[in-house]
Amino acid sequence: MTSEKTSPLKLFGTWSSSYTHRVQLALKLKGLEFEYVEEDLSAKSPSLLLYNPVHQKVPVLLHGGRPLAESIVILQYIDETWRESPLMPEDPYERAIVRFWCHFSDDKLAGAVAAVFRTTAEEQKAAVAEVHQNLAVIEGELREGHFKGRRFFGGEKLGLLDVVVGCGSFWLSIFEEVAEVKLIDEESFPLFHGWLRQFEAQEAVKETIPPADRLLEYAREVRHYLVSLSSQVKATSDDSGRVNVDPEEDKDG
Ligand SMILES: N[C@@H](CCC(=O)N[C@@H](CS)C(=O)NCC(=O)O)C(=O)O
């Protein structure tokens, strides 16, 4: 059974989730109508558990009743199903390059940014240094590498990699304020900084990303929770250094 292109689209997401924003943005860039269902991740709905039993995370996209999970998988499905306004290049090598940098963004950059957010003191300094190293790699690609001379990673228009990197990048300035660190230094990363400003200026992006004050308030609460949980864990470590309580993973992306 295949879903018709015109079959209804339903997106399960969470307002603060950059993974959800990726899918919302891609659907908007394609001009597709969809129903949005807000999930409460502290009390996941039976539908979410049914449609994403493996990871039990948002986003989940239902197309004609058929579920898809994992944001990058969903983005590629959207792009392959609705060929208008392509998000991926045609050439297989170029497509592979986009996938490579999507993985870099999720595996390396996002991990380091999350670590800055949940740590303090020396641990946080190390995480900030890791973010800077990863941003320097992207800056190098924009300056001399694969994306040299492009307005966006996708060329003149936003592409899949812009959606993936961009939807996480608005957290950088939020985390700078909440965790009192400097992550995007315009002098060190002028091309990345310029790219991010252009990304944020796109109408579809402005419609997708929640207002900064709401994100700030939310981020302050979550950081407070994570930092206090981590100090509790340190306090309950036994003499051998073994930790007695597992800190809950970062609740959000
Ligand atoms: N790799 C997943 C990550 C999705 C993810 O981490 N979603 C978070 C919200 S931002 C979530 O649903 N967390 C709930 C949980 O971990 O139980 C993707 O790209 O879709």
TrEMBL record:
Pfam families: GST_C, GST_N. It catalyses: RX + glutathione = an S-substituted glutathione + a halide anion + H(+). Its EC number is 2.5.1.18. Residues 7-86 form the GST N-terminal domain. Coiled coil: none annotated. Keywords: Transferase. It comes from the Eukaryota. One of its GO terms (cellular component) is cytoplasm. The keyword Heme does not apply. Residues 91-222 form the GST C-terminal domain. One of its GO terms (molecular function) is glutathione transferase activity. GO terms for biological process: glutathione metabolic process; toxin catabolic process. PANTHER family: GLUTATHIONE S-TRANSFERASE, GST, SUPERFAMILY, GST DOMAIN CONTAINING, GLUTATHIONE TRANSFERASE. Belongs to the GST superfamily. This is glutathione transferase. It comes from Spirodela intermedia.
